[in-house]
Amino acid sequence: MISIKNSIISDLKNIIAGEVINTPESITEFSQDFGRIIKKKPLSIVRPQSSQDVAQVIEYAVHNDLTVCPRAGGYSLGGQCLNQDGIILDMRSLNRIHEINPDQLYFQADAGASWRKVVESSMLHSLIPPVLTNFIDVTVGGTHAAGGIGVSSFRYGTQADNCLELEVVTGDGEIIWCNPKENSELFNHVLCGYGQFGIITQVRHKLQLHRPYTRTYYLTYDNLDALLKDKQTLTSENRIDYLLSVPSPALELFSKAKSKPLIQWFYVLQITIEVDELNANNNDEKILADLNYYRRTYTEDTSYGDFVLPALGMNLPENTVHPWVDLIIPESQAKTYIETALSRLPAVLDCGNTLIGSFCLPLHTTKIPMFCRPNEDTIGLGIYPIIPEFQLQPVLSELKYLTDLALECGGKRYLSGWVDFDLQQWRSQFGNYWSKVNEIKHKYDPKGIFNSGFFKYESVL
Ligand SMILES: Cc1cc2nc3c(=O)[nH]c(=O)nc-3n(C[C@H](O)[C@H](O)[C@H](O)COP(=O)(O)OP(=O)(O)OC[C@H]3O[C@@H](n4cnc5c(N)ncnc54)[C@H](O)[C@@H]3O)c2cc1C
Asked: In the chain, what are the domains?
């Protein structure tokens, strides 16, 4: 293994302009992701300087039976950007913003640019991408490969739904621009494709004007029915611009019989509108009309910049692991599903220290075939434990149970979290589209060099 390793490093150094590294520190760093659950050791890490570098690495990998995995921020949580005994492409070395176009309302950037960098550039023109994830230090390529869901997804879908064009390096080292009209099959599958069918090197993506300020209403609910009804009202009308809800536990007492805490769940609904003036009369009555909250807790006015560029620190303790999951549930099943999940979690998790969030995705907002969702409006439930490693196994068992329950009721998983699907679960996740996914993999990555080990494919097509 040592001699193969040495020749890979020297070979790659000879054929690309970018950096090639395999120091023990870098191998350790790139052996895990934000989830810290899965570990895979790459042979080398490449920092490409251009799309041509990416193409050269792929050609080299094909000829030498090596696997290649693009990695960007490394913020995925289930090994999606890890690679055992292969090459990691550290896409953050390609991070230029090429263009902010205020007339035609788009930006063009390298895949490794962070969304923070995009927003800092686009806001100079009062422009913003239609959807941002809640944590914007992830990269443009990383979320186009996953989907990218945020507080405006109820209106604009995922970030991938707002992509105009991609530059992609395919499994045979070709550099191709693709969009919904040209090379559309490649475009439609690289989006939300987790690096399975090609490597995104550049992205052209929509922008839209934003107003200078925001007003956010924090509404508390003590009743899930009322919350779901109000979410439906708000997402079917044009009243608000951003929406997020967070279940919040109130400890009632400890049941002696069940030796687990009894919890009353409250729900905070955070709705935001963009406004032209700070602290003006913003038609609060009209915005909040007919809503069934239990208490209007707080109203916050901020500049648009403060709203969209939160200083959300993500320096989690060294010794914790993060089995985060997002479940995408058909709206018709949401009440039963959320109640079941919230009643079971306290047995394995300290819910007071676990962030739980919920988002809405109406059916018409998403159209990317690789983004799995039920065939009706959906409610997302995100469960984000931050736990010591010794607590991992019971939490994973519970998350497996909740995943199976979601799949059984027609729900799906957002694949950027902790995912440990067997083949049957992959079939269930993609439903009727699964045979197409296998076909596309075979077509665009015939040698199976991309991101091996995350998706599990059929052995025979
Ligand atoms: C604190 C935190 C908050 C988050 N909040 C949100 C949120 O609000 N909404 C949301 O949707 N997600 C959220 N996520 C999930 C996150 O957006 C996804 O995991 C995203 O894919 C991570 O992007 P990244 O740049 O770190 O990519 P990585 O984790 O490095 O890669 C993600 C996947 O994309 C592939 N990939 C990376 N670059 C490319 C490329 N150039 N071409 C092809 N494939 C590529 C990788 O191989 C991998 O499969 C959050 C994650 C964390 C840790």
From this structure: 2-92 (3.30.43.10), 97-209 (3.30.465.10), 213-414 (3.40.462.10)
